[in-house]
């Protein structure tokens, strides 16, 4: 993923910001323990994850799903998939494997949440619901230049009002003004809380301005964007500590997806995160099989 890409990551202060004051309140209201931890990559194509697949593997998704418990499904951003294709993906994965589909760009980037997308979105959702119990959470990512003008706030509210309440939804806002203006930020956070919408967190080198650290549900949906730099691994250490704190405060679900500018390194980074997370909070997520040199680096 190129979002937030920088030429000199060594010059970036990657310190994880303090939590928004209301994050603890949201987590503390949850009385159940940690239920779901999903960790994965954003792609399963062999061309993107070179070196991850053993020689001779023909079904990449089937193998990927033996190594990870989830996938951030960006393919659904670009294309409208019918129920038969969704079922084919589902049938190639274990029953406990989860898909996290991105809502289509026709809705978010072409129509920009204006009226007229509903039929397209309905067709999209008919297909997506074929995932059944393997549907993790849908997420809407609006365009970087979709700022908090009144008309855009109204469009966002209308979208939320019309979206099916029985489908889990997260929203990713990218324009800095959603977060720099406290009044607007508080309005949106309250809107998300009221409608049980998860506030996506994106950690990337060049966009520290959108690290809001404000959870609006007891679910943390994190899109972690590495810089193909040694700091990618030390940054994960801070995330482990923060997740440990959130778990103690009442975190119910963790969805953590690894991206890289050069995606072939994503499996190693994800495996590192899983290993450290298991040690820190007592989860027992499978550590993906990796090439021998990567296993040595990871210490397994």
From TrEMBL:
<dbReference type="InterPro" id="IPR002763">
    <property type="entry name" value="DUF72"/>
</dbReference>
<dbReference type="Pfam" id="PF01904">
    <property type="entry name" value="DUF72"/>
</dbReference>
<dbReference type="InterPro" id="IPR036520">
    <property type="entry name" value="UPF0759_sf"/>
</dbReference>
<protein>
    <recommendedName>
        <fullName>DUF72 domain-containing protein</fullName>
    </recommendedName>
</protein>
């Amino acid at each position: 993923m190129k979002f937030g890409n920088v030429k000199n990551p060594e010059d970036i202060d990657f310190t994880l910001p303090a939590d928004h004051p209301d994050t603890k309140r949201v987590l503390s209201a949850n009385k159940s323990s940690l239920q779901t931890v999903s960790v994965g990559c954003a792609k399963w194509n062999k061309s993107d994850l070179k070196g991850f697949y053993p020689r001779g593997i023909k079904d990449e998704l089937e193998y990927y799903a033996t190594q990870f418990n989830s996938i951030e499904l960006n393919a659904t951003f670009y294309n409208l998939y019918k129920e038969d294709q969704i079922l084919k993906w589902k049938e190639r994965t274990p029953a406990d494997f989860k898909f996290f589909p991105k809502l289509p760009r026709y809705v978010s980037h072409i129509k920009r949440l204006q009226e007229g997308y509903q039929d397209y979105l309905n067709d999209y959702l008919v297909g997506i619901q074929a995932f059944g119990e393997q549907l993790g959470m849908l997420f809407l990512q609006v365009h970087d230049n979709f700022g908090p003008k009144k008309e855009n706030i109204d469009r966002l509210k209308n979208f939320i009002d019309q979206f099916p309440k029985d489908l889990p939804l997260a929203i990713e806002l990218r324009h800095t003004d959603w977060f720099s203006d406290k009044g607007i930020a508080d309005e949106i956070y309250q809107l998300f809380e009221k409608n049980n919408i998860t506030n996506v967190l994106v950690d990337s080198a060049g966009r520290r301005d959108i690290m809001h650290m404000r959870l609006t549900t007891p679910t943390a949906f994190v899109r972690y964007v590495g810089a193909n730099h040694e700091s990618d691994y030390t940054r994960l250490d801070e995330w482990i500590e923060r997740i440990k704190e959130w778990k103690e405060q009442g975190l119910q679900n963790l969805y953590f997806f690894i991206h890289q500018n050069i995606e072939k390194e994503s499996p190693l980074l994800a495996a590192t995160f899983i290993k450290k997370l298991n040690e820190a909070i007592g989860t027992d997520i499978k550590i993906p099989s990796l090439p021998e040199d990567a296993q040595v680096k990871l210490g397994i």
